[in-house]
Write a structure and sequence with these properties.
- The structure is a single chain.
- The chain has 674 residues and is an alpha+beta fold.
- Helix content is 37%, strand content 20%.
- Strands 1-2-3-4-5-6-8-7 form an 8-stranded mixed sheet, with helices on both faces. The protein has a 7-stranded mixed sheet with strand order 12-20-19-18-15-13-14, sandwiched between helices. Strands 21, 22, 23, 25 and 26 form a 5-stranded antiparallel sheet that branches.
- A hairpin with a 2-residue loop joins strand 9 and strand 10.
- Helix 1 packs across helix 2, helix 11 runs antiparallel to helix 19 and helix 16 packs parallel to helix 17.
């Protein structure tokens, strides 16, 4: 879904989606009331066109109401042997002979609701079709235009005479004249084409070559996913941003000035008609993209049954089935159980509570750079004081925070291996100097630290955590809220390490955008609480569970994970190129498709770039058409969390836009330092 265009009066032209099918059937009935019913498109026909060639089907929307539409095929066309009828097309003759790499875009239909005629919708739909022609390198558009005005004069002139008069401009036809005005050229009058009294069974073969310009069509935008029609934020976005500022607290930060109207797949469409590539992915929530059809259908299907009953009140299958699925797919051959919550933070709370109940111990060990949430307990576990914690204390007690080896910042005089050894010694020493193992309920760690700057935990360090937990009866909790569910190219990041934690916390992409978190762990740990000791009103919403079931099914497929690894390889290749080209890029790191660039003021000293420098990169990237956000302990990194469904060409286009943003800021930085 790469096309999105806002017309001056607010109507939107975009790709048709399956949910439009019933409205499209009604539009056909309204626009062509005299057409033989057997030659009228049905909802099933529109869905079939979407299966065959989704790039070529467009709707004009007023909000969610379909105001106009076009349906196309891509096929080989022989102008010397034109013997098809409209019935051939809609009954499947041409549908089944659709040629994926055909030379021509065949327009089977354009319709505009009567209340919307005269507003340029038909011209806009032809413009969208011409961009399809340019995008796929086709020869042009070809269609059989209607001669709607012939029915009024057929008692006094022949169809051929009427056709020639319209072409010569002596008569204006409601449809054919408009098509000729767009740029179509007439080729022939088609007899026995359309069983409709207003045309008297005639159509006109008309052609619009790829060399022709069409009002509203852009060759440049046709070859890209990014479409920038205004600055960002544009006028409508600025209005909504002002309303947000007036209505919401100042502490509710925002990474960008993008104001979203719709989003689909890997693209965001803003309220001013701009299209941006999404590299933020809802901070990693959208592994399978925006509005994936199976998830949307599952949400709608469940909502029609019931939206909420509460798992503390009654039992419902989506909750049980999702728990069974997570028990099956999380690492470990031991018996497991799962409980659901509303978020990653609430799930971490459950994990800590259950660990304390299971062990009878109070203390929890966490690590510098870790981010575990914003509730009182999870904020106490979270690092990065200035951004997340300043002024919000006092915090929960019995929290021990320990350093973790970040190999990019290995101290001078040490090798990376020596630094990891030192980190392990610090960990071991803390179990004497700060807390006794007999008082520790759990150690919680992100296998790849997210907010700290996509830092993969050194394998030997993580292995030592597992060993110490085994040795002292401590629960090992892997927080996979951001790094889990395919983000690193495996279902869970911990799988890269060959280790099995006692408890795994999941959220974000688990719900495909719906609010849900999960705690999956050893059955004896999960069963430790007394009845009623855990749970919540909204935890495991049936609608969220239905979405998660579809998301997990998609993400766990081998081909999905293989693509995630591939796009990770592409990102690493491009980001390493930035490191060679731009002095401001000090480090490139991550695991799989969870990649990040860290900016520095000096590569030798590794002095972090300022948060303002990073915000300049983010702002320039958005201006270039790609949505990103910062990260890192020093807020000096740009993280990449695109939907894992992103095609390689779109990924490279977005990376190019981000690279140009880094170049602008890097050049300014170099000039200021000179």
């Amino acid at each position: 879904m790469w096309y999105y265009r806002r017309l001056p009066d607010g109507l939107v032209v975009m790709h048709t989606r399956p949910e439009h099918a019933s409205q499209l059937e009604e539009l056909q009935r309204i626009c062509f009331p005299t057409l033989d019913p057997n030659e009228r498109f049905k909802a099933a026909h529109y869905r079939k066109h979407l299966e065959l060639f989704p790039d070529g089907q467009f709707v004009a929307l007023d909000g969610d109401r379909v105001a106009g539409a076009t349906t196309t095929l891509r096929l080989h066309f022989d102008f010397d042997h034109v013997n098809h009828t409209f019935a051939d097309i809609i009954q499947g003759g041409w549908l089944t002979s659709h040629q994926p790499k055909g030379e021509w875009l065949y327009g089977a239909d354009v319709g505009v609701a009567p209340a919307y005629r005269g507003r340029g919708i038909a011209t806009a739909l032809y413009a969208a079709r011409q961009e399809v022609v340019w995008r796929f390198g086709l020869d042009g558009q070809v269609t059989a235009g209607m001669i709607r005005g012939f029915g009024d004069v057929k008692d006094r002139m022949t169809a051929d005479a009427y056709y020639r008069a319209v072409v010569a401009g002596r008569i204006r036809d409601p449809t054919l004249s408009m098509q000729l005005g767009v740029g179509f050229e007439p080729r022939a009058l088609l007899a026995n084409y359309l069983n409709d009294p207003v045309c008297d069974n005639y159509g006109v073969l008309i052609v619009l070559g790829s060399e022709r310009e069409v009002p509203g069509a852009s060759r440049k935008q046709a070859m890209s996913y990014i479409r920038l029609n205004t600055e960002i934020p544009g006028p409508r976005a600025r209005d909504l941003l002002a309303r947000r500022q007036a209505a919401t607290p100042a502490g509710l930060g925002r990474a960008t000035d993008v104001v979203v109207e719709r989003a689909h797949g890997e693209l965001i469409f803003d309220v001013d008609g701009n299209t941006l590539i999404d590299f933020a992915g809802g901070i990693g929530m959208l592994a399978i993209g925006h509005t994936p059809a199976p998830v949307v259908e599952a949400i709608a299907g469940q909502a029609h049954k019931f939206i909420h009953v509460c798992a503390l009140v009654a039992t419902y299958e989506p909750y049980v089935r999702l728990a069974e699925l997570l028990n099956e797919i999380t690492p470990g051959t031991f018996k497991k159980k799962t409980i659901f919550a509303n978020s990653g933070a609430e799930s971490v709370e459950h994990a800590v509570q259950l660990s304390r109940k299971h062990t009878g111990r109070p203390s929890v060990i966490c690590f510098e750079g870790g981010y575990h949430g914003r509730t009182l307990l999870t904020l106490s576990l979270t690092s990065k004081y200035g951004l997340f914690k300043s002024g919000f204390g006092p915090f929960a007690p019995e929290i021990v925070r320990l350093p973790i080896p970040h190999v990019y910042r290995t101290p001078k005089g040490m090798t990376e291996e020596e630094y990891v050894d030192f980190g392990i010694r610090q960990l071991e020493h803390a179990l004497v100097a700060q807390v006794d193992p007999s008082a520790v309920a759990a150690m919680i760690i992100e296998p790849v630290q997210g907010e700290a700057g996509f830092i993969p935990v050194p394998p030997r360090f993580l292995k030592r955590i597992r060993e110490l937990c085994d040795q002292h009866g401590i629960v090992m909790i892997a927080d996979e809220v951001q790094c889990g569910f395919g983000r690193t190219g495996r279902l869970f990041a911990i799988e890269h390490y060959g280790l099995v934690p006692d408890v795994i916390v999941s959220a974000k992409s688990l719900g495909a955008g719906m609010p849900i978190g999960a705690v999956t762990g050893r059955a004896d740990i999960m069963d430790s609480a007394h009845p009623g000791g855990v749970g919540g009103t909204y935890g495991g919403s049936p609608v969220a569970c239905a979405a998660a079931l579809e998301a997990v099914h998609i993400i766990r497929q081998p081909e999905f994970l293989a693509h995630a690894r591939h796009i990770g390889d592409v990102m690493r290749e491009v980001l390493n190129g930035w490191k060679e080209k731009f002095p401001i890029v000090g480090d490139v790191r991550g695991l799989g498709s969870m990649m990040l660039a860290e900016f520095v003021r000096d590569r030798d000293t590794k002095e972090p770039a300022t948060p303002e420098d990073t915000l300049r990169v983010v702002g320039q990237a958005v201006a270039n058409g790609v949505v990103v956000m910062r990260a890192g302990l020093y807020s000096n990194c740009v993280r990449l969390l695109p939907p894992l469904t992103i095609p390689e060409d779109m990924l490279r286009e977005g990376l190019d836009a981000l690279g140009r943003a880094i170049e602008v800021v890097s050049t300014r930085h170099a000039a200021a330092s000179a």
